[in-house]
Amino acid sequence: MSDRLNEREREELPDSAYGLPERREYPMPDAEHVRAAEAYFRDCPENLKPKLARAILAKAQEFGVDVQSPTILSYAQM
Q1: Measured at the alpha carbon of residue 52, what is the angle toward residues 2 and 26, in degrees to the nearest 5?
Q2: Quick one: which of 73, 8, 47, 46 has its CA closest to 27?
Q3: Helix (H), strand (E) at residue 17
Q4: For a Cys-Cys bond, which of 28, 45, 51, 64 suits 59, CB 3.0-4.6 Å?
Q5: Which of 9, 70, 78 lies closest to 42, judged by CA?
Q6: Are 40 and 26 in contact (CB under 8 A)?
Q7: What is the per-residue pLDDT across 21-60, written as a single tens digit (0 to 9) for each?
Q8: Domain limits of the chain?
Q9: Can you say how many angstroms the Cα of residue 76 is from the centroid of all Cα atoms in its chain?
């Protein structure tokens, strides 16, 4: 799976696979997508960054991804 999902693949994902499930943004069904969410974190609206940061860390733990971004780690503590 690449870090790009087509519309059908996105529709098939459960809400729980998204970093921001209420918006169905930042899909993280696997380790590669966790890394992509980490890379695109800067594009997240400021008020949603703490929630997304915590979701990235949770999915990273689930898929064995080591998140070292000080920005994400900082927002996750908010």
Answers
A1: 25
A2: 8
A3: none
A4: 28
A5: 70
A6: yes
A7: 999 999 999 999 999 999 999 999 999 999 999 999 999 9
A8: 7-76
A9: 12
